[in-house]
Design brief:
The complex is a heterodimer of chains A (about 220) and B (about 450). Chain A has about 220 residues and is of the alpha/beta class. Chain A has helices at about 175-185, 190-205, 210-219; strands at about 1-5, 5-15, 15-25, 30-35, 40-45, 50-60, 60-70, 75-85, 90-95, 100-110, 115-125, 135-140, 150-155, 165-170. In chain A, α1 crosses α2 (about 190-205). Chain B has helices at about 15-25, 30-45, 85-90, 95-100, 120-125, 130-140, 140-145, 155-165, 400-405, 410-425, 430-445, and strands spanning about 5, 10, 65-70, 105-110, 110-120, 130, 170-175, 185-190, 195, 200-205, 210-220, 225-230, 230-235, 240-250, 255, 260-265, 270-275, 280-285, 285-290, 295-305, 310-315, 315-320, 325-335, 340-350, 355-365, 370-380, 385-395. In chain B, α9 (about 400-405) crosses α10 (about 410-425). Classes of the chains: A alpha/beta (about 220), B alpha/beta (about 450).
Chain lengths: ~220, ~450
């Protein structure tokens, strides 16, 4: 699948799917994927392209994304996994950066009720990746005692002229925030919903209005 | 299969039972120790090399000298150590440090401890600081209670090898309520070509006790490989505190595949402070098992990977009880074609509530062909944990270089100063002599970094 300039791609994956997406040189694109099944994705950003990539896993699913970002290209990648009620989500995102390319990955997962989220996210910069920039920001919101969050933010850097960082954390609903919202008249589940929405808000901005509504109803 | 068995040197074509029985007989060990050795050997011969980490294919087990008796009787006086050997330790400053600032010192040469001494006042308080082989004879029940209980012999392939052929090492027992103000130190030296050193260090800190233990090591460089597969087991009982500092400076031909682990009980604290400079290939992951409530683990480490070095190091924190805390700080420098890797793990079990864990790894790449990898694994199983991990990789900042050069420093001096500042948070936790040694070693490595 080749995507031209200023185009938008909306995909809903229900079962197993392997997709290869090539973003043309010098183009700006927007890709949104709602995954309910097993996704194998190869994404190539050609030179000077910019891609806003929003990707969400609902429930029991797996996804394996291999992304190559060529010279001067930029990827803003937002990832969400939503797991509730004994569900398991496995995500493997591999990013290979070339010269002067840039990747910004934000992941905001929510796990509750005996569910499991397993996220592995790699930024790899080879010897020819001069002046590449990579940033990963991964956070998981754990709502109950009996859920599991496994995170592996990985870096493989073979060039000294790069800036690369990652940060990852697990958080739980802040008691002070909950108290504040409940004291404003909200019920506990309403307050939790607000906290969940604020947790994923940064990534939600990569989706259009229709997809946002789908995501918010699923929360 | 041919086995050449001389009284003091055991060099075999393949590791066989006879080797193990010879070592055990020479040490006059109890049967239970020999049984462990044989079981471990059997497992070792059946187990593959690890599938992660540096390439270990160049490590030829058939060419390693598994035991060499230095033929020096253990003494508590440096004067009784042969001059040629004593001079090695004098150059390292061990005898002087013992007088000035240590509570006790030990020295291992090849496969045996040749020197061990502890201050009289510590002995009177009931502190035991012994050669591991002697401790097995003098305190068999105590050793049996703890030996290989922190790191079981079947833990991984190099632990199996260690359990089969271990020799030498240090046993430390600190009784209840005893706080040792001065550090105890041991220094390990591999002098022969192709030698394998497999010392076992066992530290037991009883309730409310405190100890700081330091280990240093070195070896001359040869063309063929040497192997270091030691083991450190630390038991930190209730409200006790143990600080374990080490500076590993093996030669470039050494494979350093050490295992270090501590079990920390309620209110206990373990501090790991490590500097890894030497060896061609290192795989080292000090692990803290936080078994009791409020247990605390702090791990500070520096790794330097220069030409042809692969430093695969990290730290693990396993939270098994509530209110436990772990802090991991790792700094690495890669130069020339050196590879530095941080490989860590944080695990919080489902019944460990209100824990907190923080990991910071920073990597500095000096040249174009240096490599840095970061492979953390974070596994959290309940929702009351505060966990954070951050890592950064980059090169020396142009702004910093410009600032220092504008102050009259040349490029090489500026690089040395910046690197020194980069590693300072860890260096300052080391005892002064080791901090000075590490700084000097890194300075030497930084020479000719320009270009």
């Amino acid at each position: 699948m080749e995507i031209e300039n200023n185009s938008k791609l909306n995909l809903i994956i229900k079962k197993n799917k392997s997709i290869k997406i090539i973003v043309e040189e010098n183009s700006i694109t927007n890709i949104q994927i709602l995954n309910y099944g097993n996704l194998n994705l190869n994404l190539i950003l050609n030179e000077n392209s910019v891609c806003n990539f929003g990707h969400i896993n609902f429930g029991n699913c797996k996804n394996n994304c291999n992304i190559e970002i060529k010279k001067n290209a930029k990827l803003n990648c937002g990832h969400i996994s939503l797991c509730k009620n004994n569900e398991k989500s496995y995500s493997n995102i591999n990013n290979i950066l070339n010269e002067k390319s840039n990747v910004e990955i934000i992941s905001r997962d929510i796990v509750e009720n005996k569910s499991l989220i397993d996220l592995k996210c790699l930024i790899k910069i080879n010897k020819n990746g001069n002046d590449a920039l990579g940033n990963q920001d991964l956070k998981t919101l754990m709502l109950n005692k009996n859920c599991v969050s496994k995170t592996k933010p990985l870096l493989e850097i073979e060039n000294k002229n790069v800036k690369c960082r990652h940060a990852s954390g697990t958080i739980y609903p802040n008691k002070n925030e909950l108290f504040y919202l409940i004291s404003r008249g909200l019920k506990e589940n309403e307050a939790l919903n607000i906290i969940k929405k604020s947790h994923i808000n940064k990534v939600l901005n990569l989706f259009d209005k229709k997809n946002k509504e789908i995501i918010l109803t699923k929360i | 299969m041919i086995q050449i068995s001389i009284i003091n040197v055991i060099y075999v074509i393949k590791i066989k039972e006879n080797l193990i029985k010879t070592i055990s007989k020479k040490k006059n060990e109890p049967k239970w120790m020999l049984d462990i050795r044989l079981k471990a050997l059997d497992l070792f011969n059946k187990t593959d090399l690890p599938k992660f980490g540096p390439n270990l294919n160049k490590l030829n087990f058939n060419k390693i000298l598994y035991y060499k008796d230095p033929e020096i009787k253990e003494s508590n006086s440096w004067k009784k150590i042969p001059k040629k050997v004593r001079e090695i330790y004098e150059k390292l400053g061990i005898p002087k440090a013992e007088i000035n600032s240590l509570g006790g010192a030990g020295a291992q040469y090849e496969s045996e401890i040749i020197y061990h001494n502890i201050k009289k006042e510590l002995k009177e308080k009931g502190v035991i600081f012994e050669n591991m082989d002697n401790a097995l004879k003098k305190y068999p029940n105590l050793v049996k209670k703890y030996f290989l209980k922190c790191v079981p012999y079947n833990d991984h392939k190099f632990m199996m090898l260690h359990a089969a052929v271990w020799s030498g090492g240090t046993f430390i027992y600190v009784p209840k309520n005893v706080k040792i103000n001065e550090p105890l130190q041991a220094y390990f030296r591999m002098n022969s070509e192709n030698l394998g050193q497999f010392e076992h260090t066992l530290i037991i800190a009883e309730e409310n006790s405190e100890i700081h233990y330091i280990e240093g090591c070195s070896a001359p460089a040869y063309k063929s490989s040497s192997l270091h597969a030691g083991c450190v087991e630390i038991f930190v009982h209730k409200n006790a505190k143990v600080r374990y500092s080490s500076v590993e400076n093996w030669s470039i031909n050494t494979f350093n595949l050490n295992t270090k682990r501590a079990i920390v009980e309620k209110d206990g604290k373990i501090e790991w402070v490590s500097g890894n400079m030497g060896s061609g290939t290192t795989m080292l992951y000090p692990t803290s098992i936080l078994k009791g409530e409020n247990a605390l683990s702090e791990s500070l480490g520096i790794a330097f990977a220069g030409k042809n070095q692969n430093q695969d190091i990290g730290s693990k924190a396993i939270h098994l009880a509530s209110n436990t805390k772990s802090i991991i700080k790792s700094k690495s420098i890669s130069k020339d074609n050196g590879i530095s890797t941080y490989r860590g793990k944080v695990f919080v079990s489902d019944n460990a509530y209100n824990c907190s864990s923080s990991t910071t790894c920073d990597a500095l790449l000096i040249n174009d062909n240096s490599i840095s990898n970061t492979y953390p694994s974070i596994d959290i199983r309940n929702n009351s944990t505060e966990n954070s991990h951050e890592a950064s990789v980059g090169r020396i900042s142009d702004k910093e270089m410009f600032f220092l050069k504008s102050r009259g420093l040349n490029e090489e001096e500026a690089i040395k100063l910046i690197v020194s500042g980069f590693i300072n948070p860890v260096i300052k936790q080391l005892p002064l002599e080791y901090a000075v040694e590490m700084n000097k070693l890194i300075e030497l490595e930084m020479e000719n970094s320009v270009g």
